[in-house]
Design a protein that fits this description.
Strand order of the largest sheet of chain B: 4-3-2-1-5-8-10-11-12-13
Strand content of chain A: 25-35%
Oligomer: heterotetramer
Low-confidence stretches of chain B: none
Order of helices and strands of chain B: HEHEEEHEEEHEEEEEHE
Mean pLDDT of chain A: 96
Shape of chain B: globular
Order of helices and strands of chain A: HEHEHEHEHEEEEEHEE
Helix content of chain B: 10-25%
Structural class of chain A: alpha/beta
Largest sheet of chain A: 8 strands, mixed
Strand content of chain B: 25-35%
Number of helices of chain A: 6
Distance between the termini of chain B: 17 Å
Radius of gyration of chain B: 17 Å
Distance between the termini of chain A: 41 Å
Low-confidence stretches of chain A: none
């Protein structure tokens, strides 16, 4: 029998190794798996590479992980925000490595990792600093840049509901990166507000089939606050 | 002459958005266009964090922090809206399905290059968000910005001095002084605010400016 | 106001030009837009390139279009089937051009067309006849083949329901290629069993947002029969 | 010796599929494995036309032609199943998320190459379906086929003479005579049916065959 429900959030993150590449869902606070990030902080893994849209807000969640010096490198589209002072300080002090990736490339590169695409050409970023020394090619008269997949060792994501097979559904724009990250990581761990019976989810409306999810833990929702 | 207010600029942009268009309004100044859209039109707003059919801000106290826009402000959904994940959302943009994207900018060059993500200052922390995807994704990329900086520097230029966001992608610029098309022959003013001459506007523009006004 | 509902199926296909590339949904008979294909036959466009998983079954639908000599070329994964005699005859007589594409590449190449990807590397077909003289590259120790997008002028697809914005939902495995084709064509035309009020579809469960659909026509369902 | 029947072959394959596996069973012989899966296990079947959680064939008269498998036969859905479109379905396969794919084959080489889509006959109409994606997509690709052709030709060979479906992708072969692993040192028999010697099996195999049986 398949049962991906893990009883404690500590157990869910227990085996995350030092040096792992961790994909963390969320766009601002929407869809941010605060409980899992807190559990990762408590767990103690270090020398992490974090892939997430932002580089932490305020003092909690990802910002707390940064503040505790657990993160070697961050790959994101928008590190600088009004409340990204923890990241800003580390970056200016040279204590964290940063790779800025256009948001669409961030999503598409993780999609490629999940879909078995070895690399892809796309126009985004052509002729800009962020294309760096990447290979370029004119296709159909348009300039393209070659982009490679971003694979994760672990994805930490938040969903609304799950069944014991790990089928996940989301709520509104809190969906954002989670379904893509779930496909791109070897181990995907989801925190959810509700566990439902197998068969209770509409099979026509499951953005993340359970094949992409290894562990699910039910949490009491933390109140999301403005970014 | 009287410079246009931000609200007047938004209203001016809104006039040019056809009914039934799919539109993405960038963070900052372009966001104001949403309030100026004609009520008798159906213009469908895309926000790249995964919603097509974005509605206005909710009433105070009705905020839902699972329902936000790309600027991370609470919004609403309209009937007929759809949610999707980030890769699908950017595929929608990057695949050329949006009719119009309206963006703010630091600089726009006469080749249609845009710089809007990075001042190039040595101590700046780079942060691009979806700007590079937005710049090149839609069928038309429009810019909405002041014609010059607060201290009088040109923003319509021969070559962008700031790091580029995208090359040869801007087709039109709405400023507080004029509407300027970006053509293969460079900048063409198609509207200028009352009381400002083409010559005066040219002096505020960092590249050659041709006159394309229907009525002169 | 947006209203993509077209009153007659003849009007829906009226402007399809000779020489068009037509993406036709369906896997066997599931999701096959029989009514639109019949309307295209009646409309008379010729010299067509058809992109579809199969090359027609029996004597109806796509097979009828082939039989009427309207199709110059077909791009598909599985032309030969037990009941593909119409195609088989034309092919053996040298009267139709065939490009066989692995099914996953067929789907991914249309996905690329819809997503603004200029080309992509993937392992499928490496070292086989179907890789032909395509560019190859070793990425991460694995052999890959470079594949290009398949764009359509028109997509003809079948869905279960639509609203007047063209938001489409499907039924079970009849979904198959339709959502992908809708993104890859300049003009997507959908036949549906039911038109619903705007707002009646669950916004969390719409595989094809209306932005990808230009015209919708309601049809009485034809009974699908075994392939 | 008594060759295994098709049902015995299916039962033998089923024994090796762990509980909680995600599996794609190819068209033809592998389809029989579905009936042989242990009832006390949850093994989730994928069909590449857009369903994860495929159930058995429906009762006669209960066929739903919107609910079919890759062989276009009516199937059912089990509780917990999910539907998705073709690109998502092949991404699931090509991205390496399925644990096991079981395929039929014309030939398998000692390098693990598979030929199963085309006889190479000059009048044959090529038709590949999902075979090339299936061959290289899953974590493990297993083959289920007769050990030799009806007229006694080898199907386990040094080099495939038929056009390839995929290179170096097969890890194990289940035949009516044996279970053969494909290793970097070539074919290794890990089981042989009673009454057949390794030497006899070797004569029916078109490449070197090593003995890997735990009990000899």
């Amino acid at each position: 029998m398949i049962n991906k429900i893990v009883e404690s959030i500590e157990a869910a993150v227990a085996d995350i190794a030092d040096g792992s590449i961790i994909l963390i869902g969320g766009f601002g606070t929407a869809g941010m798996p605060f409980n899992l990030v807190d559990a990762l902080l408590a767990q103690g893994a270090r020398d992490l590479t974090i892939v997430s849209n932002n580089a932490g807000n305020g003092e909690t969640g990802l910002a707390a992980l940064l503040k505790a010096k657990r993160v070697r490198k961050i790959i994101c589209s928008l590190p600088r925000q009004t409340d990204s002072h923890v990241f800003d300080g580390l970056y200016r002090a040279g204590e964290i490595e940063l790779e800025v990736v256009p948001q669409g490339n961030l999503a598409e590169r993780m999609r490629a990792a999940g879909a078995g695409i070895g690399a892809f050409f796309c126009p985004t970023g052509y002729g800009t600093l962020l294309a760096g020394d990447r290979e370029t090619r004119v296709i159909d008269g348009r300039n393209h840049v070659l982009e490679y997949p971003i694979h994760g060792d672990v994805a930490l994501i938040k969903a609304l509901k799950s069944d014991r097979w790990g089928n996940l559904v989301y709520r509104k724009t809190a969906r954002n990166f989670a379904p893509v990250m779930a496909t791109a990581a070897r181990v995907t761990i989801a925190e959810v507000s509700e566990i439902v019976e197998l068969g209770a989810l509409d099979p026509e409306a499951v953005p993340t089939p359970g094949i992409y999810v290894q562990r699910v833990v039910r949490v009491d929702a933390k109140m999301a606050v403005a970014a | 002459m009287q410079r246009m207010t931000r609200e007047q600029m938004a209203a001016r942009v809104a006039i040019d958005i056809p009914d039934a268009s799919y539109v993405n309004l960038g963070i900052g100044l372009p966001t104001l266009v949403a309030n100026a859209l004609p009520k008798d039109c159906e213009i469908i707003l895309h926000t790249e964090n995964g919603l097509l059919g974005m509605g206005p801000a909710p009433a105070k106290g009705k905020e839902d922090w699972d329902l936000i826009n790309a600027g991370k402000q609470p919004v609403t959904e309209v009937p007929g809206s759809t949610f999707f994940h980030h890769a699908d959302s950017f595929a929608m943009m990057r695949g050329g399905h949006l009719d119009i994207c309206v963006l703010g900018a630091f600089q726009v060059s006469e080749q249609g290059d845009i710089a809007n993500w990075h001042t190039g200052a040595p101590d700046a922390i780079p942060a691009v968000g979806g700007a590079m995807d937005l710049a090149i994704g839609a069928k038309k990329t429009w810019i909405m910005m002041e014609h010059v900086t607060k201290d009088g520097q040109h923003k319509l230029v021969k070559q962008c001095s700031y790091p580029l966001t995208g090359k040869s992608c801007v087709s039109r610029i709405y400023t507080d002084l004029a509407v300027v098309d970006v053509t293969k022959d460079g900048f063409v003013a198609i509207e200028i605010i009352p009381g400002l001459s083409l010559e005066e506007l040219s002096n505020l523009t960092g590249a050659a400016l041709r006159d394309g006004r229907a009525e002169k």
